[in-house]
């Protein structure tokens, strides 16, 4: 990496110091005196205005606050109306989406749940006909039950295929 080279790093550091010192000298000689003059002038003008003008009376403050309060009330009512309108639109869109587009998907999901439940019932009813089997651990028992079920289904499918072939001949 050339940035970490000693010579390149040294030159970058030297140029950084040169630019920093130049900026510091310019700011010290030109910028700070102008800023201090502006601040002194501002302090002088503020002291003259506060001496010449008394504080505003309560009537002036109340008359100035009335339009602000009216504007705040109207903006608050507009905000409430827009939020309630958006809420109504969201609930309507959600209802129409659930009624129209998601109804078929929900029906398909319920159908798949039902077929899964029926297959579980069929599997356990097919295995109940066999002799009771005892296993040491539950995961091993479930795995073995699934293997037995798969073997029985394969056997029944093969026998169905063989009987269909014999009927055709």
From TrEMBL:
UniProt catalytic activity: ATP + H2O + 4 H(+)(in) = ADP + phosphate + 5 H(+)(out)
Domain of life of the organism encoding this protein: Eukaryota
UniProt keyword Mitochondrion present: yes
Cellular component, GO annotation: mitochondrial membrane; proton-transporting ATP synthase complex
Broad class of the protein's primary localization: mitochondrion
Keywords: ATP synthesis, ATP-binding, CF(0), Hydrogen ion transport, Ion transport, Membrane, Mitochondrion, Nucleotide-binding, Translocase, Transmembrane, Transmembrane helix, Transport
Pfam families: YMF19
Domain ATP synthase YMF19-like N-terminal: 2-83
A GO molecular-function descriptor: ATP binding
Transmembrane annotation, as ranges: 6-27
Mode of membrane association: Single-pass membrane protein
Keyword Translocase appears in the UniProt entry: yes
Record function comment: This is one of the chains of the nonenzymatic component (CF(0) subunit) of the mitochondrial ATPase complex.
Self-association state and partner proteins as the record states: F-type ATPases have 2 components, CF(1) - the catalytic core - and CF(0) - the membrane proton channel. CF(1) has five subunits: alpha(3), beta(3), gamma(1), delta(1), epsilon(1). CF(0) has three main subunits: a, b and c.
UniProt name for this protein: H(+)-transporting two-sector ATPase
Lineage, broadest ranks: Eukaryota, Viridiplantae, Streptophyta, Zygnematophyceae, Zygnematophycidae
